Amino acid sequence: MAITIGPEQKTKLVTLINEGAKVMQEMDDLKTGLNDTVKHIAQELDIKPTILSKAIRVAYKQSFQDEEHAFEELEAILEAVGKK
Cβ neighbours of residue 42 under 8 Å, at least 6 residues apart? Predict the structure, then answer.
């Protein structure tokens, strides 16, 4: 399927691609900064960085009940097989 792109559409696409790439670079930069901060605070508090990162994700997604439910299922499985 061939797409016909006129000059006006081309200008819009170029702008979209350029702005999208810029936004994605900013997101990468912010993630890197957050990861560096998490590592620093984790080291300072003697907590695993993965735990702090997970706490951030759970807070962001407001998914504590989902995490709690998943842990309860995990606990039930481990109890059932005698590994708790």
Answer: 48, 49, 51, 52
